[in-house]
Design goal:
Blueprint: E1 8-14, H1 22-28, E2 38-42, H2 51-59, E3 65-68, H3 71-74, H4 78-90, E4 94-97, H5 113-148, H6 164-172, H7 178-185, H8 189-200
Parallel strand pairs: 1-2, 1-3, 3-4
């Protein structure tokens, strides 16, 4: 059980197991109360469903300070990050972002801090929205360019074996069995009947 008042807790995150988190740990260790209070996740920041983050969030009490190296270590989704930030600060947890000193809610900070935080998250949301729109625009431009160049987009069309029509005619006139047709076509049973169904439905 937590007994100390005003514990300084660190949180570090990288997106995958093969990424190095040492730089974040080196920045956080001198600032936190104890190495025990350093939580590290190696998982995408798309959601807050991360084991160490959940453990840390359960641990935090009013008067504690959560320190992160940069805002994107908290998460990637600006609107979700803003909700998480508000939830923690409403609980009385102080927040400190090392590479953005203006995002510091410790006692004694400027009274306009809440407004600054709102502006920062609104800006991040705007940037994320613009990036999504740019990605979509680039995708549409790429599709248009590919179509103009005569490239086929999407799944390739169905390709039938060269002697398909001849052998299917023999199969449907009962001259040969399905097994014989498959053998002559060099197809597996599932593939043969899948092609046959699509051929009949053309």
């Amino acid at each position: 059980m937590q007994t100390e008042k005003g514990i300084k807790v660190g949180y570090a995150r990288v997106s995958s197991k093969d990424q190095n988190v040492d730089r974040q740990i080196q920045q956080l260790e001198p600032l936190i109360t104890d190495r025990r209070y350093l939580y590290v996740d190696k998982k995408s920041g798309k959601t807050f469903d991360r084991a160490e983050y959940r453990k840390m969030k359960d641990f935090l009490r009013p008067g504690d300070t959560l320190i992160i190296c940069s805002l994107d270590r908290l998460g990637r989704n600006a609107s979700e990050m803003e909700k998480e930030w508000k939830e923690l600060t409403d609980r009385g947890v102080y927040m400190q972002v090392l590479d953005m000193p203006i995002l510091d809610t410790k006692p004694g900070q400027d009274t306009i801090n809440a407004l600054v935080v709102k502006i920062v998250f609104d800006l991040l949301s705007y940037i994320a929205q613009i990036e999504r729109e740019n990605i979509h625009k680039r995708q549409q431009e790429g599709i248009a360019a590919a179509k103009k160049a005569g490239k086929h987009l999407g799944r390739p069309g169905i390709t039938y074996p060269e002697n398909w029509s001849e052998l299917i005619l023999r199969y449907e006139s009962h001259e040969i069995t399905g097994g014989q047709a498959r053998e002559l076509l060099g197809l597996k049973e599932a593939t043969f009947y899948n092609l046959l169904r699509k051929y009949r439905n053309k």
